[in-house]
Task: inverse folding
């Protein structure tokens, strides 16, 4: 008996029955653009083997003008169809089902030939779109229908028509982007004509026995977005036009409200999907920040949806569904919603992967085969790098002993999980604990390994982490480091200066200004960001705007570099951290020089002028240095060893690099 009876209830779609209620949502991985179709096929096949009922591919362009960027993958030629057939063949052989997403980017297409209902440039693209004429609109519809036909030819089980997130179809729906006065603009009936016609023509093209998902923007989170009445009207029209499933889209890409970042509460938008339940007869899928089987089951039990979409959780663990089904949820590698190796990569033109699972999208390259000659291995340090190395090595059959001087595993992850909005790190540490317990690794907690401990092992890996950098500011003797603040050894006063505005400086500032984490309190989070009810205000933007709670402290965040702090933060999440601190009235100063710390606070110069940052506490977050005290001794004894993680290179260290380096080293042992 599964602990998640609703999640594992089959779903009858008429011509086909899905074995469970889990959909893998569309993700742009960049794999198709590599041209390595064996790799694309393995990515999806591995997830099919993991038991997900239905997968949706990354968005495929229906034509050149609609591609998200120049050269974006699409089904244009017989060769494209043959390549995609390799993917669908591998998925079907693995017992899975897969639908192809058709994504027309409209004015979000990153190129000069982009098209839209009206020639209004998006705030997130430098390219003003060309306004389509009647023939141009017909071409877009025909191209989308053709893409669906080709998807069927390539063996897909269905298509998803991307109608949300502010892309082409969504751009027709709202007056924000559609200023037309012809039959494609003006009244809502006219504005929804294009999406509805697209679905009708797609259904006509593919026949009855083919899944057609429509991804519908249920809360636009932009000015002049759809009303709830319009959302319901569209849902019914799309159903009548032939859609078999409605999927949920939340927020346009240009919205200034986070929708999937780790600081967004789990299942933060399931209540929006729930409003649509009962309005149509076809199954409805909910989405966004659902990352455990418990949460997925809960949204089904509460009637928020018929099916649950998760995307990034399948990067973190392709076998999410199979593990949930056999009651091994604690063994599911959790997606912590950090975006660091997935969306941040996508938006930097890099292949997607996953911080937690470096094998994601590297399935054919990073292969963890059983070791030919098992060895005895000592790993020193149970932070992310050491944990990844130890678990990977043990999984391959090596005999591993893991030393950790603290009483708990996790290293810097234990600091990260103290930050409001980073609660997902608790789950990551818990997962590492579960993996360790099942691994056969000899874990020596509370043991500061010595050279004598390491003698006799075939191989040694040092993953001893980092130590805070000493910024050597005169008078800093009583100033706490971030480690003192985040472990609770020191409590900050009411006015705080934070020295250093890297990832940790930002984290510490957030820790200091929040009394309680809004991520743990959905109403508080919605108030903080101004998420209203689309039934009351267009697009679901709260009429009163964001209403952040008062800051717990007065904080100033400083760096020596010129410019506003926060430029080096994550590509897709940096703006959220900057906006969060701005809401809490944190002053962010660049181009400063630190003179001294005294009872009055932090003395600096800025633009050549001396200034005092009045503060009761000055927190030092000036970066980190590698910590590897055993290295010299081992070297002297002639013991060969590897150094990984922060102990290797501390600059720009994060858990992504640590886990990747640990895994890759252990893959070769
Ligand atoms: P960091 O990003 O390298 O930032 C160090 C900060 O200290 C910078 O603001 C730097 O700016 C300042 N600094 C460096 N040397 C200094 C000195 N001698 N005296 C005074 N200030 C000095 O390091 P971090 O904040 O410790 O973070 C470490 C890593 O953890 C990050 O690189 C990041 O990858 C990861 N992390 C990421 C996140 C995230 O949000 N994704 C969050 C936390 C941590 P100036 O030199 O201009 O003063
Ligand atoms: Fe999730 Fe982070 Fe992995 Fe992306 S990189 S899938 S957000 S854990």
Result:
């Amino acid at each position: 008996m599964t602990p998640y009876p609703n999640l594992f209830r089959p779903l009858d779609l008429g011509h086909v029955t899905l074995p469970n209620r889990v959909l893998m949502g569309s993700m742009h991985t960049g794999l198709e653009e590599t041209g390595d179709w064996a790799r694309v096929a393995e990515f999806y096949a591995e997830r099919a083997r993991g038991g997900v009922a239905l997968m949706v591919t990354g968005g495929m362009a229906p034509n050149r003008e609609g591609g998200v960027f120049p050269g974006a993958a699409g089904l244009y030629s017989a060769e494209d169809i043959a390549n995609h057939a390799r993917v669908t063949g591998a998925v079907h052989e693995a017992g899975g089902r897969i639908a192809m997403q058709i994504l027309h980017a409209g004015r979000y297409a990153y190129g000069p030939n982009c098209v839209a209902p009206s020639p209004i440039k998006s705030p997130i693209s430098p390219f003003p779109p060309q306004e389509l004429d009647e023939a141009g609109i017909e071409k877009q519809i025909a191209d989308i229908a053709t893409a669906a036909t080709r998807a069927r030819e390539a063996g897909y089980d269905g298509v998803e028509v991307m109608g949300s997130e502010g892309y082409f179809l969504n751009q027709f729906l709202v007056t924000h982007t559609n200023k037309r006065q012809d039959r494609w603009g003006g009244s809502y009936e006219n504005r929804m004509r294009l999406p509805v016609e697209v679905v009708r023509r797609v259904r006509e093209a593919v026949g009855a026995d083919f899944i057609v998902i429509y991804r519908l923007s249920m809360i636009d989170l932009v000015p002049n977005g759809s009303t709830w009445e319009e959302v319901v009207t569209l849902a019914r029209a799309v159903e009548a036009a032939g859609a078999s499933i409605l999927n949920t889209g939340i927020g346009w890409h240009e919205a200034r409200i986070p929708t999937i970042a780790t600081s967004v509460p789990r299942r933060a938008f399931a209540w929006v999907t729930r409003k649509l339940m009962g309005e149509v007869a076809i199954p409805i899928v909910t989405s966004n920040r659902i990352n455990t089987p418990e949460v997925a089951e809960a949204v089904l039990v509460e009637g928020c949806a018929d099916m649950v979409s998760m995307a990034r959780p399948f990067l973190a663990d392709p076998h999410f569904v199979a593990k949930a089904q056999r009651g091994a949820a604690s063994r599911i590698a959790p997606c912590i919603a950090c975006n660091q190796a997935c969306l941040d990569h996508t938006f930097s033109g890099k292949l997607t992967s996953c911080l937690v699972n470096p094998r994601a999208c590297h399935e054919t390259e990073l292969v963890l085969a059983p070791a030919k000659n098992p060895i005895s291995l000592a790993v020193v340090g149970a932070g992310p790098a050491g944990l990844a190395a130890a678990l990977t090595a043990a999984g391959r059959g090596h005999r591993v002993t893991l030393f950790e001087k603290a009483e708990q595993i996790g290293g810097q992850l234990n600091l990260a999980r103290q930050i409001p909005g980073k609660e997902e790190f608790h789950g990551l540490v818990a997962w590492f604990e579960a993996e360790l317990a099942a691994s056969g690794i000899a874990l020596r907690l509370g043991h500061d390994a010595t050279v004598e401990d390491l003698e006799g092992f075939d191989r040694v890996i040092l993953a001893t982490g980092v130590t805070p950098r000493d910024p050597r500011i005169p008078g800093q003797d009583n100033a706490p480091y971030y480690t003192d603040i985040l472990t609770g050894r020191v409590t900050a006063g009411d006015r705080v200066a934070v020295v250093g505005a890297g990832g940790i400086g930002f984290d510490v500032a957030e820790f200091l200004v929040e009394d309680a984490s809004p991520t743990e309190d959905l109403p508080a989070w919605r108030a903080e960001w101004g998420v209203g009810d689309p039934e009351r205000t267009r697009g679901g933007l709260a009429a009163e705007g964001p209403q952040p709670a008062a800051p717990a402290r007065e904080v100033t965040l400083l760096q020596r570099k010129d410019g506003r702090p926060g430029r080096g933060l994550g590509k897709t999440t940096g703006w959220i951290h900057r906006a969060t601190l701005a809401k809490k009235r944190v002053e962010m100063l660049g181009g400063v020089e630190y003179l001294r710390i005294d009872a009055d606070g932090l003395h600096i110069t800025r633009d050549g002028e001396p200034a005092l940052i009045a503060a009761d506490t000055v927190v030092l977050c000036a970066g980190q240095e590698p910590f590897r005290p055993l290295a010299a001794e081992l070297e002297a004894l002639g013991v060969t060893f590897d150094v990984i993680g922060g102990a290797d290179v501390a600059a720009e260290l994060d858990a992504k690099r640590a886990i990747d380096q640990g895994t890759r080293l252990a893959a070769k042992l």
Observations:
- The longest strand covers residues 211-219.
- The domain at 476-514+549-622 is CATH 3.50.50.60 (FAD/NAD(P)-binding domain).
- The CA atoms of residues 494 and 553 lie 5 Å apart.
- The chain has three domains: 11-346, 376-468+628-668, 476-514+549-622.
